[in-house]
Write a structure and sequence with these properties.
Chain A: One of its GO terms (cellular component) is plasma membrane. Chain A: It is found in: Cell membrane. The complex is a heterotrimer of chains A (about 325), B (about 325) and C (about 500). Chain A is an all-alpha fold. Chain A has one domain: ABC transporter involved in vitamin B12 uptake, BtuC, CATH 1.10.3470. In chain A, about 70% of the residues lie in helices and about 0% in strands. In chain C, helix 8 crosses helix 17. The longest helix of chain C is centred in the middle third of the chain and has 16 residues, at about 180-195. The chains are: A mainly alpha (about 325), B alpha/beta (about 325), C alpha/beta (about 500).
Amino acid sequence: MSNLSTVTNNTSDAGLHKESKAAVLFKKYGMLIILIALIALMTALEPNFINSNNIINIVRQMAVIGIVAIGVTFVIITSGIDLSSGSVIALTSVIVATFAQEGTYPLIVAVLAAVAVGAATGVFNGFLIAKGNIAPFIVTLGMMTAARGLALLFSGGRPIGGLSDSFQFLGQGMILGIPVPIIIFAIIGIVSYVLLNKTKFGKYVYAIGGNEQAAMIAGVNVTKVKILVYSYAGLLSGLAGMILTARIASGQPTAGTMYELDAIAAAVIGGTSLTGGIGTIGGTVIGALIIGVMNNGLDLMNVSSYWQQILKGVIITVAVYIDARKHKKK
Amino acid sequence: MKKKVLGFMVMMLVLTSALAGCGDGGSADGEEKLKIGVALPDFDDKWLSYLQDGMTTYEEEAGNIEGIYVDAMNDAAKQMSQVETFISQGVDAIAIVPVDTESVGTIVDMANGADIPIVVVNRVYEGIEDATAYVGGNSIDSGIIQMEEVAKLLGGKGNIAIMNGTPGHEAEIKRTEGNKQVIEENPDMQVVLEKNADFDRAKGMTLMENWLQSGDQIDAVVANNDEMAIGAIMALEAAGKLDGVVVAGIDGTPDALEYVESGKLQVSVFQDAAGQGSKGLEVAAKAAQGEEVEKMNFIDFELITPDNVQTYVEKWQ
Amino acid sequence: MTSPYILQMSDISKSFPGVKALQNVKLDVKKGEVHALMGENGAGKSTLMKILIGIYTADTGSVVFDGEKLSISNVSEALDKGISMIHQELNPVPEMTVAENIFLGREPTYGKTGIVNQKQLIRNTKELFERLNITTINPKAKMIDLTVAKMQLVEIAKAVSFDSKLIIMDEPTSAITDKEVAHLFDIIRSLQKKDVGIIYITHKMEELKQIANTLTVFRDGQYVGTDSIDNMSRERLIEMMVGRELSHAFDKEHAARHEVALEVKNLTKEGKFYDVNFHVRKGEVLGIAGLMGSGRSEILETIFGVMQADAGDIEVNGQKKKMRTPKDAINAGIGLLTEDRKLTGCFLPLSVRDNMIMVNINKYTKNGIINQKRIEDDCEDQKKKMNIKTPNMDQLISNLSGGNQQKVLIGRWLLHNPDILFLDEPTRGIDIGAKSEIYNLIFELAKQGKAIIIVSSEMPEVIGLSDRIVVMSEGYQTGELDRSDATQEAIMELATRGELIKRKTS
């Protein structure tokens, strides 16, 4: 590191870049503005869109992807990637379903099983990435395939039904008129926000993504933080798998297919930068809601699935383009 | 639960010993077994796993067959190379469930070129007459049977919402086509909503929730498979709107049968997975021994309603 | 009539934002001459060469090459005109063969098909190697399998293969052994016979006598002089290179004799530095001087746990310490301001505040939750103390100027309050105003009793700041000077001695 470039005088001492107020505002709240615009558009096109039932509906539908996306946000901020989330959902789904059979174990056992399975896959990912120095893309790609295989092996390829009512409550129930998945999503959102913004761990996550070398020199235990990050992402995938299982009342080895990509999309739309060091929980939640609002609105209007996919692709590309523009300015 | 874990362990044990057994070479009774290569598109698919079970059951019963099962993971190119491997291994016959209906023609030509009988199972394609035999249903029939029953239940009129499977899938295209043929015959029935939910329960549920928010009058939800139909039922139930909506699926999976039993799922269509599997292997074995075989072997679709559901429940036991 | 000169550059100036890299310099190279170009780091040698081969464009001045006025805007144009360069840092395509690397972009093809004629390619390479008497390299070998020295030879062969009229060699001997140096010199002499002009950049004075005919010296972006090598003594050369008044006033009292804070004994890192011994006392500033590649930064990084020593001891306050990671060093009370601010210092996507608190978040954490208020207070405090120019603490550090970024990074360590502070190139790339602020800060810290080690390529800075100076050369500690004996000439003398030691030991 000491024989690298000599002169780095590309920043003049004139001080800060000047930016227009609108640009600053858009940078900060850009995706929120887009979400509101999208909601307004949907309401204009389909009056049924804007009623409290439907809004609750959208948030509940996005809870699973949203929870996964929050975990993925941590990972992407460290400039990593997690492709295994969807398969971890499936693995959790079938294992949890066996612990949630009517008249067997108390509910807490199933919940703990979800947390344990998810976290275990995450620890494994994190260990190989941080200690083994293997690229996150490769490690999680391997986990994506292996976890799906394990789920199929464990379930024999068949769905597992017969889940207890108390377990199903986690996916289908309401507390004070609010669906349980939304409550879990909200708790995870708040906890993750605090973790990322108010704790040492969170600062280290940003530091590693911002400059891993500098973080190491600042005394950050990079290996440990990375393992924790992947473990947390795995744990959240596990919880997401639990909610999905409870919601559809069935442990499914094929559940969660491609969810990892939706989760990454939500994070990226929400402003998380794939180059690391940038991203927020709020942004990711907005990103998930943008996907949810779009899916829901297009369903209401009976727009074909083909168009839905094309639009999602366009939004992701635009989000990444905005991100790239932001970086270019510097 | 304990049973499940035990079952899992037993399975692992069986798997290990089966693998160990492979090393022995010939079978114990000394008799040369018929080697039949079985190319399946996707081990993950639930319905296909029943089909595979039908095959293995037949294999055990027959005693003189050794099936080699391979998974193409829904990759047509992979399936092609797997069949190439079968040919170079010199199997006695091939049974194949094609990944797609385009590439299977080439695969059949390959087998024909090598003089190995090839039996196409479950999925028909343009040019099926080149294959040694076909075993399976006629996808469009399942759509027809399903919608005819829905029409009967609705008295020939009403708003239909169609839930399609994964876009481009043979079953998605043909079953929906069958649905629409029947709708055309009933002038008072119309498709008000139609969308893909990828044969997936969670996606079917989400789609149904959104449809319910649209405020459109829906008299029946007709899904390309049972999983999506179950998802729709769960969404309808949660909204308290299941009464007065006919829900129909296809496949007759064990989960679906429970819903039929409780009257929530009023229509399903049984595509006899195990029947297709065992018949497929049977035809392949016959062809391998040089026997003359029937070209088209249709395994009938059967309508499942709350009235006859018990028969099918027993089938799975 | 033909001019005896192959190259005449005159009145060349070049500015970068905030820095005048070259001011009206000149360089004249005769045909068939080896013209050495010398000067300290940052004297402007590389900038001039980059102008010559079209990487930079000069602000003023003219270039006459082979009797023709020249304006070159990219490297391939320079090659076409007959100028090639052997870079100090090699850029081979590692997975391609030697032959493919040499003829990259101009491979022989079968007619116009675009299909590479591999046989011809190998034949051309063999011919080239025969011409240069290179016998130990297989044209079909992959670059990645070669030693650095052989790669260097390939680079030289590549430069020669263009049949250039002028070849620039930027420290071509920095990575090769004596035998290969002799080989290189043979090649150079044979090129000379063909009237090829050679610009030879080096720090090694011993080489000059052997190979160079003429010498030009730059200093601080200015032309100092040109003379025949026969008229040049070591002493005169050093004076030409460094002879200037100190440009900053270093108002410093000699440190009082406090106890030793840090001591290293026989510290060795293979390939980087050998058998280094020094100590630094509380309240003392120790300078480590040396040219690039002398191992000075690596010593700091090793003590700080970025890399592990192969041998030797590190003692902090008289206690032996093992530094496995930077965390160990930080716990032992050491801080390191790294050499490259962007690469290993700043968290560019993060705010000024987050950049500042990263080392000692623990201080602000209670029950796992960070106390924002205390961070705010401390950061404001540092901002005022160090006169950091930023509208607020939420500002991204990437929006700050180099000098202010550096202050934030120093502030990061000051918040942690270490007893021993390593400052590696603390004023690199920052403006004069910020520089003097940082100097004052260093004195202030020393007065508070901190032990400080400073590494800098700017000799006046090291001399002005340090109580004592350890001089490194090529990984060897060649001497130690007290403040009273420290002149630039004395340091330069020691800083160029390493090759003598190296020769002795090998």
